[in-house]
Amino acid sequence: MTRSPARPLARVTRMATLALACAATQAGATAPSEVRFSRTDMVVEHVTASSPRPYADVKKDLETRLGRLDDSIRAKLKAGDVDALRAGLTKAAGKDGLVIHYVGVHGDWLILKGARGDVTEYFIGNILSAVEMTSANPAAGLYAPLRVIVYASPKGGSVIEWDRPSTQLSQYHDADIDAMGRSLDERLERLVTSTLSTGQ
Predict the structure, then answer these.
(1) According to CATH, what is the number of the domain 2-11+43-196?
(2) How many helices (H) and strands (E) does the chain have?
Protein backbone atom coordinates (compact mmCIF):
# COMPACT_ATOMS: atom_id res chain seq x y z
CA MET A 1 0.00 0.00 0.00
CA THR A 2 1.43 3.35 -1.00
CA ARG A 3 0.39 6.86 -0.14
CA SER A 4 1.23 9.54 -2.62
CA PRO A 5 2.52 12.86 -1.30
CA ALA A 6 -0.18 15.24 -0.16
CA ARG A 7 -1.24 17.33 -3.09
CA PRO A 8 -3.02 20.68 -3.31
CA LEU A 9 -6.58 20.42 -4.52
CA ALA A 10 -7.19 24.14 -4.79
CA ARG A 11 -4.52 26.47 -6.03
CA VAL A 12 -6.12 29.66 -4.89
CA THR A 13 -5.22 30.75 -1.36
CA ARG A 14 -8.00 31.50 1.08
CA MET A 15 -9.19 34.86 0.05
CA ALA A 16 -11.49 37.47 1.42
CA THR A 17 -15.03 37.19 0.16
CA LEU A 18 -15.32 38.08 -3.49
CA ALA A 19 -18.46 39.99 -4.44
CA LEU A 20 -19.63 39.70 -8.01
CA ALA A 21 -22.19 42.26 -9.08
CA CYS A 22 -24.60 40.72 -11.56
CA ALA A 23 -26.87 43.07 -13.47
CA ALA A 24 -30.31 41.68 -14.25
CA THR A 25 -32.47 43.85 -16.44
CA GLN A 26 -36.19 43.46 -16.01
CA ALA A 27 -38.85 45.86 -17.23
CA GLY A 28 -36.21 48.51 -17.77
CA ALA A 29 -34.89 48.31 -14.21
CA THR A 30 -31.51 46.98 -13.12
CA ALA A 31 -31.51 44.77 -10.03
CA PRO A 32 -27.99 44.03 -8.78
CA SER A 33 -27.31 40.88 -6.83
CA GLU A 34 -24.24 39.52 -5.08
CA VAL A 35 -22.65 36.10 -5.28
CA ARG A 36 -19.96 35.54 -2.69
CA PHE A 37 -17.09 33.09 -3.02
CA SER A 38 -14.45 31.98 -0.57
CA ARG A 39 -11.70 29.58 -1.50
CA THR A 40 -9.54 27.41 0.73
CA ASP A 41 -6.28 25.61 0.07
CA MET A 42 -6.39 22.01 1.21
CA VAL A 43 -4.19 18.95 0.86
CA VAL A 44 -5.48 15.42 0.47
CA GLU A 45 -3.57 12.18 0.93
CA HIS A 46 -4.20 9.75 -1.89
CA VAL A 47 -3.81 6.04 -1.16
CA THR A 48 -3.08 3.26 -3.66
CA ALA A 49 -3.21 -0.39 -2.60
CA SER A 50 -2.44 -3.33 -4.87
CA SER A 51 -2.10 -7.10 -4.73
CA PRO A 52 -1.85 -10.10 -7.08
CA ARG A 53 -5.47 -11.06 -6.34
CA PRO A 54 -7.54 -11.09 -9.57
CA TYR A 55 -9.91 -8.21 -10.22
CA ALA A 56 -12.97 -10.46 -10.50
CA ASP A 57 -12.28 -11.95 -7.06
CA VAL A 58 -11.70 -8.55 -5.45
CA LYS A 59 -14.87 -7.13 -6.98
CA LYS A 60 -16.96 -10.13 -5.93
CA ASP A 61 -15.62 -10.09 -2.39
CA LEU A 62 -16.19 -6.36 -1.96
CA GLU A 63 -19.75 -6.54 -3.27
CA THR A 64 -20.57 -9.66 -1.24
CA ARG A 65 -19.27 -8.48 2.13
CA LEU A 66 -20.74 -4.96 2.08
CA GLY A 67 -24.41 -4.20 2.52
CA ARG A 68 -26.36 -1.93 0.18
CA LEU A 69 -28.30 1.25 0.69
CA ASP A 70 -31.36 -0.30 -0.92
CA ASP A 71 -35.03 0.51 -1.43
CA SER A 72 -36.07 -1.05 1.88
CA ILE A 73 -33.93 1.50 3.74
CA ARG A 74 -35.18 4.34 1.57
CA ALA A 75 -38.77 3.27 2.31
CA LYS A 76 -38.08 3.52 6.05
CA LEU A 77 -36.65 6.99 5.51
CA LYS A 78 -39.69 8.06 3.51
CA ALA A 79 -42.00 6.73 6.21
CA GLY A 80 -40.06 8.58 8.90
CA ASP A 81 -39.70 5.41 10.98
CA VAL A 82 -36.54 6.44 12.80
CA ASP A 83 -36.10 3.33 14.94
CA ALA A 84 -36.55 0.96 11.99
CA LEU A 85 -34.33 3.16 9.85
CA ARG A 86 -31.52 3.15 12.40
CA ALA A 87 -31.80 -0.63 12.78
CA GLY A 88 -31.73 -1.13 9.02
CA LEU A 89 -28.69 1.09 8.59
CA THR A 90 -26.85 -0.65 11.41
CA LYS A 91 -27.56 -4.07 9.92
CA ALA A 92 -26.51 -3.00 6.41
CA ALA A 93 -23.20 -1.61 7.71
CA GLY A 94 -22.29 -4.99 9.17
CA LYS A 95 -18.88 -5.77 10.61
CA ASP A 96 -17.08 -3.37 8.28
CA GLY A 97 -19.19 -0.37 9.27
CA LEU A 98 -19.56 0.56 5.59
CA VAL A 99 -22.31 0.32 2.98
CA ILE A 100 -22.30 0.57 -0.82
CA HIS A 101 -24.49 3.53 -1.79
CA TYR A 102 -23.96 3.52 -5.54
CA VAL A 103 -21.79 1.75 -8.12
CA GLY A 104 -20.08 3.54 -11.02
CA VAL A 105 -19.63 1.11 -13.92
CA HIS A 106 -16.71 2.89 -15.56
CA GLY A 107 -15.49 -0.37 -17.11
CA ASP A 108 -18.81 -0.88 -18.91
CA TRP A 109 -18.72 2.67 -20.26
CA LEU A 110 -15.39 1.90 -21.90
CA ILE A 111 -17.39 0.14 -24.61
CA LEU A 112 -17.57 3.63 -26.09
CA LYS A 113 -13.81 3.31 -26.67
CA GLY A 114 -14.08 -0.13 -28.24
CA ALA A 115 -14.28 -2.67 -25.41
CA ARG A 116 -15.46 -3.01 -21.82
CA GLY A 117 -12.81 -2.89 -19.12
CA ASP A 118 -12.23 -3.97 -15.54
CA VAL A 119 -12.90 -0.72 -13.65
CA THR A 120 -15.57 -0.16 -11.00
CA GLU A 121 -16.11 2.80 -8.70
CA TYR A 122 -17.89 2.37 -5.38
CA PHE A 123 -19.55 5.13 -3.41
CA ILE A 124 -19.08 3.75 0.09
CA GLY A 125 -20.12 5.19 3.42
CA ASN A 126 -22.21 4.90 6.53
CA ILE A 127 -25.29 7.08 6.97
CA LEU A 128 -25.04 6.91 10.76
CA SER A 129 -21.48 8.25 10.54
CA ALA A 130 -22.45 10.83 7.94
CA VAL A 131 -25.19 12.41 10.04
CA GLU A 132 -22.75 12.82 12.92
CA MET A 133 -20.66 14.97 10.59
CA THR A 134 -23.37 16.85 8.69
CA SER A 135 -25.11 17.76 11.95
CA ALA A 136 -21.86 19.49 12.94
CA ASN A 137 -21.24 21.03 9.51
CA PRO A 138 -23.52 20.42 6.51
CA ALA A 139 -20.58 20.90 4.13
CA ALA A 140 -19.05 17.63 5.35
CA GLY A 141 -21.73 15.90 3.28
CA LEU A 142 -19.52 16.63 0.27
CA TYR A 143 -17.43 13.65 1.39
CA ALA A 144 -20.25 11.29 2.33
CA PRO A 145 -20.29 8.81 0.76
CA LEU A 146 -16.61 8.27 0.02
CA ARG A 147 -15.35 7.19 -3.38
CA VAL A 148 -13.23 4.08 -3.97
CA ILE A 149 -12.10 2.83 -7.37
CA VAL A 150 -11.10 -0.75 -8.13
CA TYR A 151 -9.41 -1.80 -11.35
CA ALA A 152 -7.35 -4.56 -12.91
CA SER A 153 -3.65 -3.76 -12.97
CA PRO A 154 -1.97 -3.95 -16.40
CA LYS A 155 0.75 -5.95 -14.61
CA GLY A 156 -1.78 -8.45 -13.23
CA GLY A 157 -3.73 -8.41 -10.01
CA SER A 158 -5.85 -5.55 -8.72
CA VAL A 159 -5.53 -1.97 -7.55
CA ILE A 160 -7.76 -0.01 -5.18
CA GLU A 161 -7.42 3.77 -4.81
CA TRP A 162 -9.10 6.35 -2.61
CA ASP A 163 -8.55 9.70 -0.94
CA ARG A 164 -7.98 9.42 2.80
CA PRO A 165 -11.15 10.69 4.55
CA SER A 166 -9.41 12.39 7.48
CA THR A 167 -7.40 14.59 5.11
CA GLN A 168 -10.54 15.58 3.20
CA LEU A 169 -12.44 16.42 6.36
CA SER A 170 -9.69 18.25 8.25
CA GLN A 171 -10.59 21.50 6.46
CA TYR A 172 -13.63 21.89 8.73
CA HIS A 173 -11.55 22.17 11.93
CA ASP A 174 -14.11 20.31 13.99
CA ALA A 175 -13.04 17.75 16.60
CA ASP A 176 -16.05 15.48 16.07
CA ILE A 177 -15.65 15.49 12.30
CA ASP A 178 -11.91 14.85 12.65
CA ALA A 179 -12.59 11.86 14.90
CA MET A 180 -15.06 10.44 12.39
CA GLY A 181 -12.54 11.00 9.60
CA ARG A 182 -9.95 8.92 11.45
CA SER A 183 -12.53 6.21 12.06
CA LEU A 184 -13.33 6.10 8.34
CA ASP A 185 -9.61 5.90 7.55
CA GLU A 186 -9.34 2.80 9.69
CA ARG A 187 -12.49 1.17 8.35
CA LEU A 188 -11.45 1.68 4.73
CA GLU A 189 -7.92 0.42 5.28
CA ARG A 190 -9.17 -2.72 7.03
CA LEU A 191 -11.67 -3.36 4.25
CA VAL A 192 -9.11 -2.88 1.48
CA THR A 193 -6.47 -5.00 3.21
CA SER A 194 -8.89 -7.85 3.69
CA THR A 195 -10.36 -7.61 0.19
CA LEU A 196 -6.98 -7.57 -1.54
CA SER A 197 -5.57 -10.39 0.57
CA THR A 198 -4.79 -13.46 -1.52
CA GLY A 199 -5.51 -15.74 1.42
CA GLN A 200 -9.28 -15.54 0.97
Answers:
(1) 3.30.310.70
(2) 7, 11
